[in-house]
Amino acid sequence: MKKPITRRSFVRAAAAGSAALAGWNARRPRVLAAETARPAVLGGKPVHEGGWASWPEWQQAWEPEVLDVLRSNRWFRGGPGGRVGEFEAAYAKLLGAKRCLATASGTTALLVALNVMDVDAGDEVIVSPFTFIATYNAVLAHKALPVLADTDPSSLTMDPASIESRITDRTRAIVPVHIYGMPCDMDPINEIARRRKLAVVEDACQAWLAEYRGRKCGVLGDLGCFSFQESKHLPAGEGGAVTGNSDDLLDRCHSFHNCGQAHGSFRGDKPYFTRGANYRMQHFQAAILLQQIEKLVQETARRRENADYLSAQLRQVPGIQPARLPEGSRPVWHLYPLRYDAQGFKGLSREKFIRALVAEGIPCGGCYTEQYNDGLLDETIRSRGFQRLFSPARLKAYRESFPELQGNRQVCATTVTMYQSLLLGSRKDMDDIVEAIRRIQAHSEAIAKSA
Ligand SMILES: Cc1ncc(COP(=O)(O)O)c(C=O)c1O
After folding, report:
1. Among 86, 148, 214, 262, which is least packed by CB within 10 angstroms?
2. In angstroms, rounded to a whole number, what is the distance separating the alpha carbons of residues 157 and 331?
3. Beta bridge partners of 398
4. What is the pLDDT of residues 163-219, one digit of tens each?
5. Residue 133 CA, ligand 1 centroid: distance in Å
6. Does ligand 1 come within 6 angstroms of the Cβ of 206?
7. DSSP3 helix / strand / coil % (the chain, rounded to 5)
8. Whose CA is nearest to atom 4 of ligand 1?
């Protein structure tokens, strides 16, 4: 890590007329200002004024397609084709997947995928704890136990080394989560799954177009699940998809999401030969999604470029650590996270750092908390159903295992996140973020003392 640039070292070098400094100064012209200006939280002028892109966005050009669905009197996906069918084909192509099934949401995509991978009552599923709560809920809805692997503090994703010790004779599947659009290290996860005969369902709900070693997230395991909820990079208010390369699995997914009706190769002698639910997407959702695919591709490139720049700059700030990415992976940054070490900021707490950064006009926040301590899993353990399905000893050991999640605890306590639309800004906007952080660092002692 490079040493911080102090004003004194800057002036000394400038006086020496260093040619090297001229290059350095051209690249980082605003560092000096960051050190001298009063932080906004202490009454100074914010570094960034003028706000950021709002989300979601809509375009007038999309209206005819939505109206077309309205006037067609064909709003739900009965039968093949229509906008939902078109979207499925387009999304599969985008991902390099053989098949895609559109669903009502990311949660329902997970419900479908877990069902098709035969997760049943009394089973166990190994999941990432650092995720939106829907990942836990999808497992619980099957009356299966979400067993929490630990989080690698450097990458914020499932630590493959923590998986095997959590496998029991009831484990059926692993659900890695590509959190914030950062791919999990899938090779070791898939290797464990193959060897231990477990299914892999990727929670790619935040990872549209993310890549791992030349392939897109969503086709790296048995099935992948996506969300198109309003905050997402490809939004339709609500929406989701299951993706994969197996016709058999995708036929089963289609059947389950459509009330258990036969689909493709998956059929029986009678109409209601299998269980199912209604998790269908509407044509309205698909009409909105179809029109945003090119936008997603372009914006993903922009977010990547800005995030790469930001990471390169922030790596030079002591106390700030951008996430480590698995070799050969390309994230898409649903949120941009950084690990905050208060020691680099003279003990300034993460909460005060966030408040100071927001005051500088840089919207940011914390991250997922240790949700396993929030009561949801205690309620599960106490429930009639789970007490029938699992022994008291298993439930006790399960509850007592949460404090073992040391990596996850660290991540929850130290991560700061910025919303994806910040990464749609200009290079100057990225410089504002860096300048704001440097300014807070230069004044961290005074900020720490302030109320
Ligand atoms: C990681 C993760 N998993 C699952 C979901 C559930 O998706 P949805 O909200 O579309 O049901 C989300 C959505 O926020 C998510 O971020």
Report:
1. 214
2. 12
3. none
4. 999 999 999 999 999 999 999 999 999 999 999 999 999 999 999 999 999 999 999
5. 8
6. yes
7. 45, 15, 40
8. 134
Query: Does ligand 1 come within 6 angstroms of the Cβ of 134?
Result: yes
pLDDT at 81: 79
**pLDDT(105) > 60:** yes
449, 226, 439, 440: which is closest to 334 by C-alpha?
Answer: 226
Q: Give the burial class of 418: count Cβ atoms within 10 A of its Cβ; 0-12 exposed, 13-18 middle, 19 or more buried.
A: buried
Q: Is the CB of 203 under 6 A from ligand 1?
A: yes
Let me know: does 342 contact 349? Beta carbons within 8 Å: yes
CA 95 to ligand 1 center in whole angstroms: 19
Smallest CA-to-CA distance from 83 within 251, 290, 243, 257 is with 290
First-to-last alpha carbon distance for the chain, in angstroms, is 31
Ligand 1 centroid vs 218 CA: distance in angstroms?
14
Give the position, in ligand 1's atom list, of the atom nearest the Cα of 206.
16
Q: How far apart are CA 257 and CA 107, in angstroms?
A: 12
Sort 441 into a burial class: Cβ within 10 Å, 0-12 / 13-18 / 19+. buried
Q: What percent of the chain has pLDDT over 90?
A: 90
DSSP per-residue letters across 410-433: HHHHHEEEEEGGGGGS-HHHHHHH
| Residue % of the chain over a pLDDT of 70 | 92
- The number of the ligand 1 atom at minimal distance from the alpha carbon of 178 is 1
Which amino acid is it at 419? Y
Ligand 1 pocket check for 106: Cβ under 6 Å: yes
Does residue 333's CB lie within 6 angstroms of at least one atom of ligand 1? no
Ligand 1 atom index nearest CA of 131: 1
Tens of pLDDT, residue by residue over 393-402, are 999 999 999 9
Check residue 144 and report its DSSP letter.
-
Q: How far apart are CA 408 and CA 372, in angstroms?
A: 11
Task: Determine the pLDDT at residue 26.
Answer: 40
What is the identity of the amino acid at 75?
A: W
Strand partners, 337: 417
Q: Which atom of ligand 1 is nearest to the CA of 227?
A: 10
Q: Under a CB-based contact definition with an 8 Å cutoff, are residues 103 and 77 in contact?
A: no
Residues 6+ apart with CB under 8 A from 15: none
At 451 the pLDDT is 74
H helices within 2-81, ranges in order? 7-15, 19-27, 31-36, 63-72
